[in-house]
Amino acid sequence: MRIGVDCHGVPALRLAPYKVAPAFGLLPHYKKGGFYHCYNDDSVIISYLCNYKIINNRVGFPINTINKVVNILVNNKVNYVVYNKDKIVDEYSNKDNKYYDVLLKAKSYLNINIRFNNIISNLYKLDKDKLNKIICYIEAVINE
To answer: What's the pTM?
Structure first.
């Protein structure tokens, strides 16, 4: 199996954290059906930049949105490689690669969203008086 291509040789998208692409040691991002799938840290970056939801440590996006995704990566100076079978069909390699900078921001944003969503789900469990106190406190902080 070649880097960036699954055992069937289907197209793959992969982000490259190093100054040149392709970056070895990363999981490839496979085309499955009508979608590209990104995993692990790459999924965090794609989720953050493109507002896709992470499910089971992966992000999937429709093949017809690949141009939108790679344009966002280029605008954010994140290196990538797109494979079709064993051929590179598109790549972006910038000496000033911002992969790790974007990843740090993305992880921070993801952590805040997880905490926020946990708070929201717990608020539904509170009685009316406790919920009112929390809402009043939040409003006071916001209006400071």
So the answer is: 0.74
